[in-house]
């Protein structure tokens, strides 16, 4: 930065690293710091973050702790699931989809306080720095972004601990050694990376998993659940209408109890390197299966196949941090149009790490038993029509075949 910031809004978790960043901003720039802590359903008590910020000299009016769970699921997770978005065939984008919302509130709080910069704790090796900053610049092109991990000389755990001790920042006992792995969590998933997980040849230890029992220890009897959909979004579980965040919370409980949603994945980061992560997305895995189930009977083949062909691009945009880009918004408009009649109910079977759609029904269904039955269809479909259909589609192939035989 060419000029030291006067007022900075920091994405603050209350943990050691962001507490060090808070103090570093104060000592490096002599600036006023405002903290923002988002409750996205990570399952941790967030009030200690308030006490820690106050201890580090932040005025009560400069501490923001907000419950964003409903907004997170309603405006970010659900739109993404309308697309059935999966990155590189497996990853349900749990970390990726949280970053634009955090960045949005950082920018809004900066505008409310007249701050000239925002700051985050993402490292220079990962994807989150890209996601935070692309989102911030899209929402406020004039905002300054401070990324301490790319600026400071605290390049080792030892130096971080020394800085913390020098500035009387409390250090949890397990932080004095090398942490076994790092964790990110929200209502959609948990993500564990680094240290004990860095060798992709080694099976992840069971203690890494936080939201799911192992499939081997899951109940020996399956459980059935029914999810109701309206215009592509889940609206009820077993007939009970629920809010978006309540639905995902309940599905997490069900999926976790049955060992559903575990993923050991080596992904391609946007910055160029490969990374191994252990993900748990119990509720999201159930929701994806359910949504695809209701689409099977309410989407026509043209719409469904077009959606499926665009999904990898849509997922990649989210993974790479382009949630607020015009191309993602254009794709979202197409996806949302496809969901007009995606309304109905899906029955799912949960059993030992797996979820399967075993029933689906809808007043908007395109499925016609009269047309597909192996019994007498009472004239619903004339099988003789298929002969002309095949001849027309075969014409191109026959002409190619004759040409190939002639030239040989």
Which structural class best describes the helix and strand composition? Answer: alpha/beta
Number of helical stretches of at least 4 residues: 12
Helix content: 40-55%
Low-confidence region ranges: none
- In spatial order, strands of the major sheet run 3-2-1-4-5
What is the averaged pLDDT score?
94
Ends: how far apart? 69 Å
Biggest beta-sheet profile: 5 strands, parallel
Shape: elongated
What's the SSE pattern? EHEHEHHEHEHEEEEEHEEHHHEEHH
Number of DSSP E strands: 14
| Gyration radius, rounded | 25 Å
**DSSP strand content:** 15-25%
Describe this structure in words.
The longest helix is centred in the last third of the chain and has 23 residues, at 385-407. The strands form 3 sheets. A 5-stranded parallel sheet has the order 3-2-1-4-5, sandwiched between helices. Strands 10-9-8-13-14 form a 5-stranded antiparallel sheet. With 408 residues, it is of the alpha/beta class. The N and C termini lie far apart (69 Å). The protein is 40% helix and 19% strand. The radius of gyration is 25 Å and the shape is elongated. It has helices spanning 16-29, 47-55, 69-82, 99-113, 128-139, 157-166, 244-257, 282-298, 301-320, 326-338, 369-372, 385-407, and strands spanning 7-11, 32-39, 63-67, 117-119, 144-146, 182-185, 190-193, 223-230, 233-237, 240-241, 262-268, 274-280, 344-351, 354-361. Strand 8 and strand 9 form a beta hairpin.
């Amino acid at each position: 930065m060419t000029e030291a910031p006067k007022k900075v809004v920091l994405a603050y978790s209350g943990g050691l690293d962001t507490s060090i960043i808070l103090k570093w901003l104060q000592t490096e720039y002599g600036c006023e710091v405002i903290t923002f802590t988002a409750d996205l359903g990570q399952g941790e008590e967030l009030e200690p973050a308030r006490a820690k910020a106050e201890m580090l000299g932040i005025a009560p009016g400069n501490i923001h702790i907000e419950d964003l769970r409903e907004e997170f699921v309603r405006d970010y997770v659900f739109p993404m699931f309308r697309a059935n978005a999966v990155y590189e065939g497996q990853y349900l984008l749990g970390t990726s989809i949280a970053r634009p919302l955090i960045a949005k509130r950082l920018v809004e709080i900066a505008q409310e306080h007249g701050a000239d910069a925002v700051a985050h704790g993402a490292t220079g090796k990962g994807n989150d720095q890209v996601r935070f900053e692309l989102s911030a610049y899209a929402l406020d092109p004039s905002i300054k972004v401070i990324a301490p991990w790319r600026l400071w000389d605290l390049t080792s755990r030892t130096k971080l601990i020394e800085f913390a001790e020098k500035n009387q920042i409390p250090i949890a006992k397990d932080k004095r050694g090398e942490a076994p792995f790092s964790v990110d969590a929200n209502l959609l998933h948990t993500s564990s990376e680094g240290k004990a997980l860095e060798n992709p040849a080694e099976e992840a230890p069971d203690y890494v998993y936080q939201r799911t029992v192992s499939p081997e220890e899951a109940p020996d009897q399956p459980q059935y659940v029914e999810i109701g959909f309206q215009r592509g979004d889940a609206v009820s579980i077993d007939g009970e209408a629920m809010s978006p965040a309540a639905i995902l919370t309940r599905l997490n409980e069900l999926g976790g109890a049955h060992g559903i949603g575990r993923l050991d994945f080596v992904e391609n980061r946007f910055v160029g390197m490969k990374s191994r992560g252990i993900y748990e997305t119990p509720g999201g895995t159930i929701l994806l299966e359910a949504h695809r189930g209701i689409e099977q009977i309410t989407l026509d083949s043209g719409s469904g196949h077009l959606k499926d062909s665009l999904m990898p691009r849509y997922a990649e945009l989210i993974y790479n941090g382009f949630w607020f880009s015009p191309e993602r918004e254009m794709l979202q408009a197409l996806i949302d149009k496809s969901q007009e009649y995606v309304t109905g109910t899906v029955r799912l079977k949960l059993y030992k790490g797996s979820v399967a759609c075993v029933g689906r029904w809808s007043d908007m269904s395109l499925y016609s038993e009269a047309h597909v039955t192996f019994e007498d269809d009472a004239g619903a479909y004339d099988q003789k029509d298929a002969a002309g259909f095949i001849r027309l589609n075969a014409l191109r192939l026959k002409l190619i075949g004759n040409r190939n035989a002639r030239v040989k």
